[in-house]
Design a protein that fits this description.
The chain is an alpha/beta fold and 360 residues long. Helices cover 36% and strands 16% of the residues. It is globular and about 60 Å long.
Length: 360
């Protein structure tokens, strides 16, 4: 009996799409180890391996770009438009090349988060293409208007050719997709016992004085780390190699550790709006401090999501970049919704994938 083969293609924009999809891939692998995973992305292997413990094939390919950014909050629309036009010009050759790969490797199912050309791969190769996301790129580009309107329509047309969308929480309408299935939160789980994390990293502060700072794979320039010195009896944890050396700031550079591994020992996470961090924090019930993400249409929906389903503090960019971080002394706001959000997204998607692969 041939091994079922799952091809996963991931948007190459920061680390969030890669980590949330890797958490689903890891669940599929755990529930059905015989599935062979082929992952097409330019995300680094170490990042995927921090979520996926078993074997997988990494195919270094990019089929979209999301948004060109200097860091987590700064966008370059002109460069984004140029690169999208280049993809559009080369779409036929991109599709033909990947269809050849899919056929040669006898792929059974495509899972995409959320490169629009993946639907073209599926149609040309006669393989189902299932997508996963809380937003789609046509929504982002449409919001920018002008020359992006035509690009957004082109992207949207590809999305209409997908076979299924697993729509994650904190989502946009995503009306281009013909078959939508709403699922719960996805994300990774802590991989180390709390005592082990505390011992290895020498963390002795209580949770209420332990703060996680994480701004995703793109990072964030000009974080005012000097404010940390005003909280000398607190402990801060960051994944920013360029952060200064401060006595109460731990810089995590060992790649086997992820932000989610430190969440259980913290009272809050400070982050820019991003689905993966918000989802993992909400899965663990960890309050979130965040700043608005101007000019990124998805941000308002993410902020609304955590207002509804997690304890939160929404602070202004001025408070974060120019203030004294007195917000750390304030209590988070409680979630607006009385009912908790569903947290079974990994398992729901994994089960659907496995059921399909076993049925063919």
């Amino acid at each position: 009996m041939n091994r079922p083969i799952l091809y996963i293609t991931i948007t190459n924009h920061g680390f969030g799409h890669a980590t949330r999809t890797a958490s689903i891939a890891a669940t599929i692998q755990k529930l059905c180890p015989e599935v062979l995973l082929i992952i097409a992305t330019t995300a680094p292997r170490w990042l995927l391996e921090s979520y996926i413990k078993g074997d997988f094939i990494l195919r270094q390919r990019a089929f979209d770009l999301g948004v060109v950014q200097a860091d987590s909050l700064t966008m370059d629309k002109a460069a984004t438009l140029d690169k999208l036009r280049e993809i559009k010009k080369n779409q036929n050759s991109l599709i033909a090349s990947e269809v050849n790969f899919l056929r040669q490797n006898r792929v059974n199912l495509i899972l995409a988060d959320i490169p629009f050309l993946a639907a073209g791969f599926g149609k040309a190769a006669n393989i189902p293409c299932w997508m996963i996301s809380n937003f789609s790129w046509d929504f982002i580009y449409q919001d920018w208007g002008g020359e992006f309107t035509e690009i957004a329509d082109w992207v949207s047309d590809w999305y209409t050719k997908s076979d299924r969308l697993f729509r994650l929480p904190f989502h946009t309408p995503m009306s281009a997709f013909p078959n939508i299935i709403d699922v719960g939160l996805t994300g990774g789980s802590p991989g180390f016992p709390i005592d082990e994390i505390r011992t290895i990293w020498g963390i002795t502060t209580p949770p209420e004085k332990t703060i996680l700072l994480t701004f995703g794979g793109l990072g964030l320039q000009a974080i005012p780390y000097n404010n940390i010195e005003k909280f000398s009896d607190w402990q801060f944890i960051a994944f920013d190699a360029s952060a200064p050396d401060l006595p109460n700031l731990i810089k995590v550079q060992n790649r086997q550790y992820r932000p989610v591994d430190f969440m259980p020992i913290c009272s809050r996470v400070v982050s820019k709006p991003g689905y993966s961090t918000f989802a993992e924090a909400t899965l663990l019930g960890l309050p979130i401090i965040t700043i608005p993400r101007h000019d990124f249409a998805e941000a308002d929906l993410l902020l609304e999501g955590i207002k509804n389903y997690n304890h939160h503090q929404i602070i202004t960019p001025t408070e974060f970049f120019d203030g004294t971080w007195d917000f750390l002394h304030d209590l988070p706001q409680p979630p607006k919704q009385p009912q908790p959000i569903a947290k079974n997204g990994n398992e729901t998607i994994a089960k659907a994938v496995i059921d399909y692969l076993k049925s063919i």
